[in-house]
Design brief:
Mean pLDDT: 95
Strand order of the largest sheet: 2-1-3-4
CATH architecture of the largest domain: 3-Layer(aba) Sandwich
Number of domains: 2
Distance between the termini: 12 Å
CATH class of the largest domain: Alpha Beta
Helix content: 40-55%
Strand content: 15-25%
Oligomer: single chain
Length: 223
């Protein structure tokens, strides 16, 4: 069995965390293909939206993963999640599911409360994540109030970033029922935030890995 992890921007910590969660769910023997194109997120950040060129390159990465024999694809970047949504008819036809790392996390947030705080360091991730939460809430027959938490983490190390995120979460305390970390790279702060504010806090890697396993089970690739 072979799975493809598609990144548009990454850090060594994010790769390690995502692969750990994936292997925990689908087993140590699966072959993992890790593909990266940082020009995609760079272009999205500069433009402030997913440009046609960025979307085309991401779709090209999906196609390359299929040609490499991937049984399923995990789309890591929340900023371009709508590209994964748009690709779904082709994925079904090809027989290689493309799983968004963040969608089930957003569903869980809606299950946990009607006031959802969203923490992000990029507006290009904040807005799509809010859009996904609003969409899944409608699909679930619920209405949610979204509270923005956009923080500037430029040039910060991990410890500084941790302090910044915990502080931003504390400002949300009393205003939200659950906090969503919009970027997978934030996942290592999840438990710190939950401990500091006493509010359920969600990050995407563990949810994405579970959904990847479900997609592989649905097509009979694993038990």
């Amino acid at each position: 069995m072979k799975v493809s992890l598609v990144y548009t921007g990454t850090t060594p910590e994010l790769i390690e965390l995502v692969e750990k969660e994936v292997r925990k769910n689908i087993g140590p023997d699966a072959e993992i293909i890790s593909s990266q194109d940082p020009t995609i997120i760079a272009e999205v950040r500069q433009a402030g939206y997913v440009t046609p060129g960025a979307a085309a390159r991401l779709i090209g990465m999906y196609a390359a993963a299929v040609q490499q024999g991937a049984d399923a694809i995990l789309n890591i970047c929340s900023s371009v999640g709508e590209v994964a949504d748009a690709f779904q008819p082709a994925a079904r036809y090809i027989g290689v599911p493309v799983v968004r790392i963040d969608e089930e996390m957003c569903r869980q947030a809606v299950r946990l409360g009607s006031r959802v705080g969203v923490l992000a360091t990029l507006a290009t991730t904040l807005d799509p994540t809010k859009g996904t939460i609003s969409r899944v809430a409608r699909e679930m027959g619920k209405h949610v109030e979204l509270v923005d938490g956009l923080v500037d983490a430029f040039n910060m190390d991990q410890d500084q970033f941790r302090v910044l995120l915990v502080g931003a979460a504390q400002k949300m305390a009393g205003k939200v029922d659950v906090i969503v970390l919009a970027q997978g790279s934030m996942a290592y702060v999840e438990q710190d935030i939950e401990k500091a504010v006493g509010i359920p806090t969600l990050s995407s890697p563990r949810f994405g890995a579970i959904e990847l396993k479900k997609a592989l089970q649905a097509k009979g690739s694993i038990a």
